[in-house]
Amino acid sequence: MAYDYDPELASWADRLAPVDYTDPLAARAAVRAIAGRRPAYQPLGSVEEFDATAPGPDGAPPVRLRVHRPARRGTEPGPGLLYLHWGGFVCGDVDAIRPTVQRLADRTGAVVVAVAYRLAPEHPYPAGLDDAYAALCWTAEHAADLGVDPARLGVGGESAGGGLAAALALLARDRGGPALRFQCLMWPELDDRLETVSARSFTDTPKWNRACAQASWGFYLGPRHRPGANEVPPYAAPARAPDLSGLPPAYVCVCEYDPGRDEAITYAHRLIQAGVRTEIGYYPGTFHASVSVAEAAVSQKMLADQTDALVRGLRGAPPGEPASRTPHTGPDGRTSA
């Protein structure tokens, strides 16, 4: 299939082969190599970095976190952002996204907490999401120590991490957990059914294609759930959630030649229809995570737009004023306020 890539991305398309997610060990080695070649981010200001751990859910191991805290003027708390890494649910860690979270902390002024959630297939759903929720609760509980205003706390992520961020927003809403001010979903992985036009058509796209998505969902859902089956929970695949009302405002970034394009656009439209303030960033000529071609103007625009959306979205309520919450019934039948 011929693709009309952005001219600055076209020369890279053949060189950015997708990771083989059918072999998790090989995929992890490939991701480590990719991450090792990424240039370090040079912050405009000072960004403090330290590791922490959150208690694991229900007796599971502690969740490893890496906190990126920018220098701020004054003593007033600022925004916070829990950020979830990419990797098809089977690979990646806080090291792989270090330049990304450093950039976000530096450019948005938010304290960014990266989460080393458990990976499939060894730890299928709901392990990764449970770890993310434990990390969110830890961040909210330690907001004062971190310099975070709990009324200005958001979640975000890329690819699988974007899907986890969307699921985390659903889970926090339905459990009455920490109130979220914003969700930032970058080319998110949301729908295990893979029935959209883009999911069926993009079998040979750079970095991520239909085969990658199929392997990813198979490992993440594990032996208890078959991708595409009716019983797949909405917290595993947020596109299945019947009710998106009461969720935090969202920014959804979409790449044109991405198998996940249509599910991301549909999810954004459903958020809007549910009364959730939502902004869609759609970038013609791009492919999944094409921001890795950093010198391309469209990549720079995508990152600048993400930064702008986060700065606006995390302004939040004044210190001490809680974010509003809407009473609601979740997909598990429980009602929360």
CATH architecture: 3-Layer(aba) Sandwich
In the CATH scheme, what's the topology name?
Rossmann fold
**Main pleated-sheet profile:** 8 strands, mixed
Q: What structural class do the secondary elements suggest? A: alpha/beta
Q: What is the β-strand count?
A: 10
Amount of beta strand: 15-25%
Helix count from the secondary structure assignment: 10
Order of neighbouring strands in the sheet with most strands: 1-2-4-3-5-6-7-8
Query: Gap between N and C termini, in Å?
Result: 48 Å
Kindly list the characteristics that best describe this protein.
337 residues; alpha/beta; Rossmann fold; eight-stranded mixed β-sheet; two-stranded antiparallel sheet; 10 helices; globular; disordered C terminus; hydrolase; AB_hydrolase_fold; GDXG_lipolytic_enzyme; hydrolase activity; Alpha/beta hydrolase
